[in-house]
Amino acid sequence: MDHEHYSDAYLREVLDGVKTIAMVGASPNWNRPSYFAMKYLQGKGYRVIPVNPAVAGQEILGERVYASLRDIPEKVDMVDIFRNSAAAGPIVDEAIAIGARVVWMQLGVRNDEAAARAEAAGLKVVMNRCPKIEWSRLHGELSWSGVNSGIISSKRAAGAGGWPGVSGGGFSSKRLKKG
Q1: Of 40, 157, 165, 175, whose CA is between 20 and 30 Å from 1?
Q2: Are 49 and 130 within one domain?
Q3: How far apart are CA 68 and CA 46, in angstroms?
Q4: Tens of pLDDT along the chain (179 residues)?
Q5: Which helix (DSSP H) or strand (DSSP E) does residue 89 occupy?
Q6: Which helix (H) or strand (E) holds 148?
Q7: From CA 170, how far away is CA 153, in angstroms rounded?
Q8: Which domain holds residue 173?
Q9: In terms of domains, do 92 and 169 share one?
Q10: pTM of the model as a whole
Q11: Torsion sign (Cα): 9, 92, 100, 130
């Protein structure tokens, strides 16, 4: 597997093939990337189980937080690693031990030795990518933030200056002038 470049087909296969994601390093702080990614993935229908020993037993976004992957009482399809590259090694070993099918290492996280162990055990591996970003990109959502307003389009506006499905829509110089 070339871990520098992943085909869209491979990423789609991974994202379409999982339902339950354990997010190691999930944060209860709303302004942390892991919190935003967890909320986004929940909104796309994934069950995201947070793993963070510092807040084990509490809840993040309505899900109980576990101290480790082994503590999760149900099957996990994918382990999403929001920890540094060195910490990824033991987490990958734990993912193999619990029978996960995918290990996903977040942006900036790469551990080739751990990836080789996971692949030898039959797991799919993605490194240095974000599932939230890849999901939004593969599904045509606007920008990496995952916003799909339905207003901005590269297509010509329908009718007399309006946007399809938007009453009174469209832009004109009259609207832009003050007064």
Answers
A1: 40
A2: yes
A3: 19
A4: 899 999 999 999 999 999 999 999 999 999 999 999 999 999 999 999 999 999 999 999 999 999 999 999 999 999 999 999 999 999 999 999 999 999 999 999 999 999 999 999 999 999 999 999 999 989 888 554 545 444 445 555 555 455 455 444 444 444 444 44
A5: helix 85-98
A6: none
A7: 11
A8: 149-179
A9: no
A10: 0.79
A11: negative
150/13 Cα distance (integer angstroms): 26
- The answer for residues whose C-beta is within 8 angstroms of residue 45's C-beta and 6 or more apart is 19
126, 6 in Cβ contact below 8 A? yes
DSSP string, 53-83: GGGTTSEETTEE-BSSGGG--S--SEEEE-S
- 153 and 134 within one domain: no
Tokens read off for 88: 């990824």
Q: Name the packing angle between helices 131-138 and 33-43 (round to 10°).
A: 40
Residue located via tokens 């491979």 = 10
CA distance 94 to 168: 56
Number of folded domains that form the chain: 2
